[in-house]
Amino acid sequence: xxxxxxxxxxxxxxxxxxxxxxxxxxxxxxxxxxxxxxxxxxxxxxxxxxxxxxxxxxxxxxxxxxxxxxxxxxxxxxxxxxxxxxxxxxxxxxxxxxxxxxxxxxxxxxxxxxxxxxxxxxxxxxxxxxxxxxxxxxxxxxxxxxxxxxxxxxxxxxxxxxxxxxxxxxxxxxxxxxxxxxxxxxxxxxxxxxxxxxxxxxxxxxxxxxxxxxxxxxxxxxxxxxxxxxxxxxxxxxxxxxxxxxxxxxxxxxxxxxxxxxxxxxxxxxxxxxxxxxxxxxxxxxxxxxxxxxxxxxxxxxxxxxxxxxxxxxxxxxxxxxxxxxxxxxxxxxxxxxxxxxxxxxxxxxxxxxxxxxxxxxxxxxxxxxxxxxxxxxxxxxxxxxxxxxxxxxxxxxxxxxxxxxxxxxxxxxxxxxxxxxxxxxxxxxxxxxxxxxxxxxxxxxxxxxxxxxxxxxxxxxxxxxxxxxxxxxxxxxxxxxxxxxxxxxxxxxxxx
Amino acid sequence: xxxxxxxxxxxxxxxxxxxxxxxxxxxxxxxxxxxxxxxxxxxxxxxxxxxxxxxxxxxxxxxxxxx
Lengths: 497, 67
Hints:
By secondary structure, chain A is an all-alpha fold.
């Protein structure tokens, strides 16, 4: 075992330790395990939110896309910043309602607002299905880090297995408290590692940022701007909008909203959080530097660019620290995703099917589901060959389908009824599934349309289908039921009937 | 919606609407190709705009007392 791997494993053990320690002396009932007792202040929420956003996707996928696609990778900067803008108005009403009704999951929110446990099952299912590509992304990242840091002695497949086992153990050991502490370590580390790499590498190889970009531009003109077709500006605008709407629809992100101390935490955070995204700039610098220094990484291998360039440039111990930071960027969100997925399935699917189950049993079921979800994601990790960005966009187009039903429920009375919400989400998700499986894009569906429309993210179509069906079904079902609209549940915790 | 809330639309216009018009490499600003610089500029402006909205919003004055 080389020094790089030793450092990475040392950090893994440290995070296990902080996970166990954070948990000691805590009475772990369901609410504490998942939302940390609603007691976190501004700084911790900042770290938690940042911890979920700065995943291995940012680290390896961001540089990977800069390496293989160029300018289109900038979309990441835009969507994260704009999502924070929306959060100023979106999160306070969600938090207030969740607190009043003591909700612990995203699915609870829909159950309570629309007074429909069936809708809760659908929302939980969509959330869990969307989480899987996101988990695959983290596992792939872990596999890349471990196998690259081993200098080829550990095969990528074996490295993925090791990564999956590590994340699963971590989740079983800790709840959200472990994640919060490890997230703090991770955020400090990733900050310094990314800034260091983003400045050192372009200066080392080109003598500066601008000479680096100029060299890339000379070698491949057009790479630093959005192309006129394909990943064009019209792709950029539509993709940013889809991902902005989906940003808070991830079940784990939605769930973390509940753990804030008060609603002004969100308003205050919107000032600083956009600036935090500028860290991505340094990740892009690394990816662009790698283009001419470690050429020839094709397709999904673009995600290796940051580590390949590090291996070429640095001593093994520095590679170890970079790898350790990368490990934490996969471990923290990976554990959060696994925990959320397992809790959703246990509480919002299993419990609805078997209402007699006690909370203690549900918590047990949730913990049993953690390794099950790990194994499912492991299967897809080992069988698929997509880039990290493709995986993330797939998950996003699914969770975004929850946005209209959420948005229309924020008023005192939901604008659509539960049948409309159910049908709309289902139609949107089916559209996404169809286009994913058939690889359809607007360009293949409508070959003669102008490229401005052809390049639109296909998620836009799914979202439109979703909204049209939602209002259509609401209008049709309205006369069939007394009063037209069902009342929003205002009686405390939703009762499962 | 109050005028204050409409301010929240401005980052969308700048970051999304502006990009098709500035999709070029030259001139480099702070070492970055122009379109990248434009997006970075709007990230910073977004932060400034949110600070202004926060300042104007009476809801943020209630502070921790509400919890």
